[in-house]
C-alpha cells in the first residue's frame, strides 16, 4: 500500500477523440503537462466526467493514465450506482496497476451517518485497492460532519480525502485530528483559507499547476487573488467547468478535441 497522498493532486479531465474514444496521445500530453508539480492523479472523477463515461471509456482512461503516470500514484474515481459495480471496478483498476480508487462520500446529514461509516468500513476491507475519499456535500452540522469524516479517515486502507464541502473550517478541524491519512482542499478559491492542509486537489491544476504548486509551497493572499482571477478567466465555477478546461487545453494543443461525454450522449442519443 502506498503512503499518504499529499501535495498537488490532479483531477484529470478525460480527453476524447472525434469518435468519442479516449485519446491516448492527449492523455499522454496532459500528464506530461502536469508532471513537473503533480504528486498523484485522479482520473474519472467529477472533472473527468466519471459519472457520464461508458465502462469502456472509464477502463481505457485508467489504463492510459497508469501507462503514462511514470510512478505517480493513480486513484481513479469510481462513480457508480452499486457497491458490486464499485468492487468490480476496483478489481479492474488493481489489475491495470492503479494505486487506489476514489470514492464519493454520500451526504452526512446525521440520519444515516452510522450506516455510511459501516458501509465504508466494509468497502475498505473488501476493496483490493485502498480508498481515497471525496466529500463534496455541504449538508449537516459542521461538528457532526467533522466527527463522521474523522471516523471515515481512520478506517483501514484509506489514503486521504479531497474535502470539497466549501467549508474550510472542516479542513482545519480534520487537520487537528492527527489523522493517519491526508486531508486535501478541493476548491481553488478556498486554498488560502485552508492552512495546514496536506495538499490541493483542484481542477485548475489541469491548466495552471505551477501556480497551484506555488500556493502550496509559499501560500499568500496575492497568490490566492491570482488563482481566483484564473478561475474566473477559465470559468471554473460554471456548472460545466470541465468543458471550459477542455476548450482551453484543446486551444493549447494538449487535447485533440474539446469533446465532452455530454456531447457524446447527445450525439449518440444515449440516455
Q: What attributes does this structure have?
A:
271 residues; alpha/beta; 7-stranded parallel β-sheet; 10 helices; lyase; Dihydrodipicolinate synthase family protein; Aldolase_TIM
CATH class: Alpha Beta
Low-confidence residue ranges: none
Number of domains: 1
CATH topology: TIM Barrel
Query: Helical content, roughly?
Result: 40-55%
Radius of gyration: 17 Å
How are the strands of the biggest sheet laid out side by side?
A: 2-1-7-6-5-4-3
- Average of pLDDT: 94
CATH architecture classification: Alpha-Beta Barrel
Query: How many DSSP H or I helices?
Result: 10
Distance between the termini: 38 Å
| DSSP strand content | 5-15%
Using the alpha-carbon principal axes, give the shape: globular
Described by strand count, sense and barrel closure, the largest sheet is: 7 strands, parallel
Structural class: alpha/beta
The tally of beta strands, per DSSP, is: 7
CATH superfamily: Aldolase class I
Instruction: Write the element-wise H/E pattern from the N-terminal end onward.
Output: EHEHHEHEHEHEEHHHH
Pfam families: DHDPS
Protein name: Dihydrodipicolinate synthase family protein
Keywords: Lyase
Write up this protein.
By secondary structure, the chain is an alpha/beta fold. It has one domain (7-268): Alpha-Beta Barrel (TIM Barrel), CATH 3.20.20.70. Helices cover 44% and strands 11% of the residues. It has ten helices and seven strands. It has a seven-stranded parallel beta sheet with strand order 2-1-7-6-5-4-3, with helices on one face. Strand 5, helix 6 (168-175) and strand 6 (182-185) form a beta-alpha-beta unit. The relative contact order is 0.16. The model has no long low-confidence stretch (mean pLDDT 94). Pfam families: DHDPS (PF00701). InterPro entries: Aldolase_TIM, DapA-like. Keywords: Lyase.
